[in-house]
UniProtKB/TrEMBL annotation:
Record-annotated site: Transition state stabilizer: 66
Cysteines joined through disulfide linkages: 39-118, 72-77, 124-324, 203-235
Cleavable signal peptide: 1-27
SUPFAM superfamilies associated with the record: Heme-dependent peroxidases (SSF48113)
Annotated positions binding Ca(2+) 2: 197, 247, 255
Protein name: Peroxidase
Role this protein plays: Removal of H(2)O(2), oxidation of toxic reductants, biosynthesis and degradation of lignin, suberization, auxin catabolism, response to environmental stresses such as wounding, pathogen attack and oxidative stress. These functions might be dependent on each isozyme/isoform in each plant tissue.
Species this protein is from: Hibiscus syriacus (Rose of Sharon)
Cofactor comment text: Binds 2 calcium ions per subunit.
Origin: domain of life: Eukaryota
Top-level EC class: oxidoreductase
Active site: 70
Entry binding sites for substrate: 166
One cellular component term from this protein's GO annotations in UniProt: extracellular region
Amino acid sequence: MATCQKLLSCLFLQLIVILMVSNLSNAQGLKLGYYHKTCPNAESIIQKATYRVISRAPTLAAPLLRLHFHDCFVRGCDGSVLLNSTKNNLAEKAAVPNLSLRGFNVIDSIKAEVEEACPGVVSCADVVALVARDSVSMIHGPYWEVPLGRRDGRVSIMNQVFAELPAPLANITTLRQMFAAKGLNMKDLAVLSGGHTIGTSHCNGFTNRLYNFTGRGDTDPTLDPNYIVKLRQKCKPGDTKTLVEMDPGSFKTFDEAYFTLVAKRRGLFQSDAALLDDPETKAYVFLQATTHGSTFAKDFAESMVKMGRARVLTGNQGEIRKHCAFVN
Ligand code: HEM
Ligand SMILES: *[C@@H]1O[C@H](CO)[C@@H](O)[C@H](O)[C@H]1NC(C)=O
Ligand SMILES: *[C@@H]1O[C@H](CO)[C@@H](O)[C@H](O)[C@H]1NC(C)=O
Ligand SMILES: *[C@@H]1O[C@H](CO)[C@@H](O)[C@H](O)[C@H]1NC(C)=O
Ligand SMILES: CC(=O)N[C@H]1CO[C@H](CO)[C@@H](O)[C@@H]1O
């Protein structure tokens, strides 16, 4: 700044520096091996702990992947999904989609293990990102390096879930907007929807398509009529309890079968079926369906890294929570 001669150009330079610094302290601030010096065993502790959990209960891989998605889509990947409600605040957990979120206790206990090794160093948001990666890779899914250095937010607001997280009845326009808001494009939408190759859904996520689609006792014309018959056997109207496998037969294995299902008009949610309403997502679905998922594993790894950068807190923003359910 000593070379600044005119006040205006000085201010201009400072502005550029400030912009660069704030840019660095955002998504770009994440780094591979971020805890290399401060907590060298962090990633291996988390991997071993996740392995222990998944080998005992393979069906937990799905909710643990989904937690990272929900964390990143509401606010950003800042651990806000993990915070408990307080006397004065209803947190994200209190929103209706929470009813089906699972795995909080797994994250809390893995975080406790990490805290024991390196107190106050590793964020809950990073734990969630690593556990999602490790869960997927342990059920035959791809492995990817996770850029780290996320910090934990102090805010979690129930109503933000409805605004930022797509509902199962979202159409392609809404999906495009909500993904774009997180820096994700149509390819990412198609790829990440492939996360529905694992896990289960409660009936009420899709029963509208089976019984009373437009309020005239009709069914969703975009859903395979033979599949409707099968789904009706599992889900009666108003059922909010029964769980249905989203990728029947291989719901515990991370494979490309999701795209075969969607191509056959057997995607469970309207948001799955909506992938056929846009030329780019449709082309992706058919490409994976007809080539046995030739590029799905690689694409999924890439899109997960991209999703993991959504509005992260870095540098001195936020905090490193001690317990994932509470701000410090
Ligand atoms: C595109 C917008 C999306 C919508 C509308 C959506 C909606 C849903 C719904 C309604 C469920 C069922 C929850 C239940 O009733 O138990 C579900 C489950 C699931 N979702 Fe998504 N999802 C979307 C994207 C994603 C993404 C991007 C991922 C991860 C990359 C993902 C991963 C999962 C997993 C793994 C499950 C199964 C959870 C379990 O077994 O407990 N979803 N999703
Ligand atoms: C946080 O809230 C959940 C229910 O939302 C509860 O099961 C859990 O025990 C709470 N965590 C702690 C540490 O109090
Ligand atoms: C998509 O859904 C949004 C929100 O429900 C709605 O406003 C919009 O009209 C829908 N778009 C189409 C093309 O159906
Ligand atoms: C279908 O929905 C309409 C409008 O919400 C309602 O009036 C009707 O009773 C429903 N029919 C059945 C069979 O549930
Ligand atoms: C665990 C938890 O917070 N559950 C809440 C989920 O959302 C419903 C309704 O929005 C609440 O009643 C639950 O307490």
